[in-house]
Amino acid sequence: MTFVKPLNSSLIHRAAPGPKLLALILLITAISIELPFIDDTIKPWIPACGLLFTAALYALAFPGVGKFLEQVWNLKLLIALISIPQLLFGTPLATVLSATVRLTDAMLLAALFSLTTKTRDLLDSIESALGAKWLSPLTRLGLKPATVSLAFAMTMNAIPMIMKFLNQTKEAQSARGVKPTPVRMTIPLLVASLKYADEYAEALTARGVEV
Amino acid sequence: MLIEFDRVSVAFEGTIALDDVSVKLDQKRIGVIGLNGSGKSTFARLLNGLVKPTSGSVFVGGVNPAEDAKAARAQTGFIFSNPDVQIIMPTVLEDVAFSLRGSGLKKAEIDAKSRAILSRFEIEHLADQAAHSLSSGQKQLLAICAILVTEPKLIVADEPTALLDLVNSRRIARALLSDLPQQIVLVTHDLELAAGCDILVRFAGAKIVQIGEPSTVISSYLAENA
Ligand SMILES: Nc1ncnc2c1ncn2[C@@H]1O[C@H](COP(=O)(O)OP(=O)(O)OP(=O)(O)O)[C@@H](O)[C@H]1O
Ligand SMILES: [Mg+2]
């Protein structure tokens, strides 16, 4: 007997994974680039509008603002890690703000996507999309659908691990009485991630994955 | 299966990890003990080709892992100490099912087989959970399920209980030593676990220094390092 958690049935949950992924990519692109035809007076407000739009999408999938705020809170360290070094290097506040909001927004959108999509459905749709005729030049170049979908799954898996290292590093530094700043955290975080990557590659090989 | 080492040495830049080791083993539960850096993991990794001998040769059931890594990996399941690095797919069921990709089975069959192994280890209720949200003990059970579902002939486990508490260690010990039909090579620092094997191989200074009855090997290990 299994107890499958009843899946949330919002429009966003039910959307087909393929088009949803396409929408994600388009939205992230729209956030990341400076659209040339937009008036200078509106420009500074675009990142904020994007964030609002994302909050609205979250509300559509999960009633209320709780889920959205929870995800923002999850990203707090990453946000600090991105913005503080820029400020230290003297980048103007407005630029830092705009870049940080955009990046946060992109990560929130990606998180929303993974929260509302079953990985297996996603992988299936990536594999079948890559199997489609119009993409056959890519497959002929040696891009295997299975490899691409595996890379996707591994990326989604790596995110909680990096978050774990982030927390461990922070706690270890606090325990030794130093205030964990992004600058201090970079090296241990890198070391932990590289070590993880090494062991992960070995475990993959042992499970018969050709990488 | 017969595990055969013929004058095997392994050198990494500067260090000799294994020094001219020859041995033949075909017991069902083979325990490997020894101090840190004595060569146990190197020995274990040679069995599925993760490490290749610098000189000499290894045969496992007639397969040479250094030459035919694919065949070696198909017949050998490897369990690491850190369960975090063994998880490939985001959810429990998907991770087990991942092992059966390319098995030629239909999706429904893969699902059924994966669920069956999860229920054998009493973690079927976790099937749809995020794999990273499990406890270390549950993760290690998941890793074992993901390996056993492919029915390998040999299991190699390198300190599978190193990160676990007493209860979870015993659970893993039971899963690996009592309930398993397969042959297993078990590397461990846990002497209670080692005592449950049929034979113990003891490493020291990159060599095998003793092979025998677990109680005998454990008492000379304790005496020598008193
Ligand atoms: N990839 C490597 N590169 C360089 N040296 C290595 C490598 N792997 C092992 N060694 C060295 O080889 C020796 C044997 O290592 P091995 O990992 O086999 O020991 P072990 O018995 O498993 O130890 P432990 O109980 O600490 O796991 C050690 O001196 C180790 O530092
Ligand atoms: Mg070791």
Automatic annotation (TrEMBL), chain A:
Spans through the membrane: 21-38, 44-65, 77-99
Alphabetic keyword roster: Membrane, Transmembrane, Transmembrane helix
Signal peptide range in chain numbering: none
Main location: membrane
Localization per record: Membrane
Topology of the protein relative to the lipid bilayer: Multi-pass membrane protein
GO cellular component, one term: plasma membrane
Stored InterPro entries: ABC/ECF_trnsptr_transmembrane
Protein name: Unannotated protein
Organism for this UniProt entry: freshwater metagenome
From TrEMBL, chain B:
GO molecular function term, any single one: ATPase-coupled transmembrane transporter activity
SMART domains: AAA
Keywords, comma-separated and alphabetical: ATP-binding, Nucleotide-binding, Transport
Ranges where the ABC transporter domain occurs: 3-226
InterPro entries: AAA+_ATPase, ABC_transporter-like_ATP-bd, ABC_transporter-like_CS, ABC_transpr_CbiO/EcfA_su, ECF_ABC_transporter_ATP-bd, P-loop_NTPase
Pfam family, one: ABC_tran
Keyword field contains Transferase: no
GO cellular component term, pick one: ATP-binding cassette (ABC) transporter complex
PANTHER family assigned to the protein according to its UniProt record, in alphabetical order: ENERGY-COUPLING FACTOR TRANSPORTER ATP-BINDING PROTEIN ECFA1, HEAVY METAL TRANSPORTER
Similarity annotation: Belongs to the ABC transporter superfamily.
The protein's name in its UniProt record: Unannotated protein
